[in-house]
Amino acid sequence: MNEPSLSIRVVPDGCSLTLYLAGEVDLATVGTLRACLDDIDGGFRSVVLDLAEVTFLDSSGLGTLAQAARGLEPGTRTLLLRGPRSNVQHVLEMSGITRLLPIVPSAADAPESGDATESAS
Fold it and tell me: The pTM is what?
């Protein structure tokens, strides 16, 4: 039997930090996420959790997200969720966590900069 796994790739970009999560966020792996969130220094104004590659999220993962959201001092840092798969988004919405942590569109869903008709001559 394969053990569930979670990998986290951390990508800083100026005052923003993106954590790319891949795998399952559950009781067996949530410690990895919690440790990563706890290690973020105060220099980042925005932290984005990219959930596009998360295949499963259980109540322990939801609890960790809620704890992270509640631990933020108002006006110091934002924590956002980005691009969850439909099954993960359903869990996020049903739990009510999206009232604490908004879901933003994934980079692939963002509108193109500029107007495509401008380049056609």
Answer: 0.82
